[in-house]
Amino acid sequence: MDLWKKIERPAPPTTTDYVDDEKPGSSVVDVEQNNQSLGIGINSDGQQPHHVQPDIEKRVVRKLDYRVVPLVSALWLFEAGFGPGIPYLLSFFYLRYELGFRIGIFLSAAPLATTFAGALAYGITSGNSQLANWRLLFLVEGLPTIFMAAVAYFFLPVSPDKARILTAEEALVAKARAVRQVGDVERVGGIVLKDILSTLADPKAWFTAISPTLTGVVFLPTILEDMGFSSINAQGLTAPPFFLSFLVTILSVYVADRTQQRGFTIMLMSTIGFIGYVLLAAVETVGVRYFGVFLAAAGIFPSIANILPWVLNNQGSDTRRGTGIAILNIIGQCGPLLGTNIFPKNESPRYFKGMWVSAAFTLFTGFLALGLRTLLVWENKKLDSKYGPKAPHPAGGIDASSQKTAVGEENYGPSFRYIL
């Protein structure tokens, strides 16, 4: 608390500021009993810090993990078209130091689904159905999405504190987390036009938006078939690289969350993908080229999984976070437009142009991450000069030095710092 007094910040919030006032007739005894049940401590001077015991908060986060992440991941697994908005939705449930791992689990469903896509497509289309194969394929992939949409409608909570799986005490902790995030419990409101324009003018939003990722990995079955494998074997050989990509995606976002070094993680993943494309372009040996496929797949998907939370981490309002995600998705869709046109059939089996262009763009993503991280370091130094140095945040717990102001720790203000 001495640090906060030195830089003249307001006193931290109390849970009773926004909960017990709603209960007419609540007494000091009631408040103290409620605080003790939550593990919320009382200072010797009688002031209540915004701090809860880590085990209680972990229980809240674990319950949200069991309900929120599986539902959105299942929808994405079955290729629902709402995928680009899910990272933004998750930012309402998790703190910025928890968000990357949950987005990573969600996005890892893409390489995991692709792991089995070839075998699934072959199994569906090799039968003797009375329906055309393409119709049957659409039904098998579309019906689960419709089913999961109904499940999500009834079981996906509107907000963390309204999740039915939480007890009353845990809901109170969820409200405390919301206050720490943005300064208020209620976050659903209107769009702020000024924030949209500010985001459009913010170079940080464009650094991540133009981090290009092409679609070379989408053509893996064709690339493998042109290495000399049969169509069936080529479909089967795509599974191991995509499964490795699934594992690396989860591992990379976990490490980035724990170290709070997302830029370095993107640089590393981009370098791995770059090496993979170079091997595919420059080497003729089939075994080495297949190893390049592993590297390319293990570099591309983890890069995307770390770019998305980076956008949300470094915009200081809900409108700005939503706008940043929108910019990323609009510009990001230009990558597949180019990617689908740089692997023409007449350039098989080596696809020199496609491989080298993919290698160059993947490396460029790493340089953009380096440039953005350098800019964020400079921005954080300016914030430290203005507000004083910010105490290190203990990942995975509610910080006792959090404050209740018009803005929270994740909105622009004295507590806001950019994630590197």
Description:
- This protein is mostly helical and 420 residues long.
- 64% of the residues lie in helices and 0% in strands.
- The chain contains 17 helices and no strands.
- The radius of gyration is 24 Å and the shape is globular.
Which short descriptors sum up this protein?
420 residues; 17 helices; disordered N terminus
Provide a concise account of the structure shown:
By secondary structure, the chain is mostly helical. It has 17 helices and no strands.
Gross geometry: globular
* E-strand count: 0
| Beta-strand percentage range | under 5%
Number of helices: 17
Percent in helix: 55-70%
Chain-averaged pLDDT: 75
What is the multimeric organization of the chains shown?
Answer: single chain
In terms of structural class, how would the helical and strand content be classed?
Answer: mainly alpha
**How far is the N terminus from the C terminus?**
26 Å
Low-confidence stretches: 1-50, 394-406
Major sheet summary line: none
What is the helix/strand order? HHHHHHHHHHHHHHHHH
Q: Whole-number radius of gyration?
A: 24 Å
